[in-house]
Amino acid sequence: MNRPHSQPGQENPFAFFAQSRASWLLVLVPVTLLLRHFTQLSDTWIFLLSALAMVPLARLLSEATEQLALHTGASLGALLNVTFGNAGELVIGFFALRQGLQNVVKASITGSILMNLLLTMGVSMVSGGLRERELRFNPLQARSRATMMTLAAIGLIFPAAYHLLGGSGARTHEADLSLEFSIILLVTYVLSLLFTLRTHRDLLSARHDEDETPHWSATMAGSMLAVSALGIAFMGEVLVGSIEAASRALHMSDLFAGIIVIAIAGNAAEATSAVRAAMRGRMDLSVGIASGSSMQIALFVAPALVLLSHGMGPGPMDLVFTPTELLALVIAIVIHGQIAGDGEANWMEGVQLLAVYCMLGVMFYLMPVG
Known about the structure:
The protein is mainly α. It contains 14 helices and two strands, in the order H-H-H-H-H-H-E-H-H-H-H-H-H-H-E-H.
């Protein structure tokens, strides 16, 4: 049966591996597993190797998702991106919850949002701005996501305010408050999908090129999606299992490890896709990936991990983030909304986003533990 829009000569992943400069890092997946189980290599090296191995796996998962989305159409393709786009964060969060590393989980949530809004968007604007003087994208789309991110920030600020203002008597209800907030955020997120995929689909029209053709068959894309997801699951377990010892050896706090190192490893797929889109002049797609992924993390990943925590670990996870994390989130959301809200950008605005991310990274690294 022929598919008129497919290209049979390219219906295999080998062209992708040959063109992707990071694909050679896939060899780190079996190497890391062998070193972990059959050698006495230090946890520091295992941590670093597993973090590097997550990058090509996330890149492969992103490519497989994009290729499969071209076969399924825009609506179902968007759902696929929702489901698999943040697989790295969900997997890492799941294994961290099993080990009781709730602070690491919350730090990775903060770091993922900061990375997408500042680092990913900054690199994308610089990369696109080197090719075009002015970068243009749909301002209505950007403002809609900025509003949703403001809602997400409110959902994360209120539990911390309850913790600080409620006194010692309020501490016993923090888990219940976070659970109820998570349900509200998840319902809001589902309704946002209904808004963007059904009732106001035109808001997403610029994110998909109708004339773009898939290079892989649907079967091949599905197979690569399953393989990459399985690899991410294995590497996520290895990464989390070595994080505590590696953090001590590298003199990193759990806060810095979660916000910077784990966030970068878990969000490599979105970052790579956003930068590639910007370099091809598709700023609507680039901005949509960066802001949309942040929205998914705040409204879907974080509440989902709270729900999961009620069935594992030493106790349920709450949504009480540290004041430093909340300040960083508010700053990131405000500056991202200010830069992206007018539908125009240039490479210097990307530099400004990167400068804010670097300053936050230095602050978190020097933040005293305790």
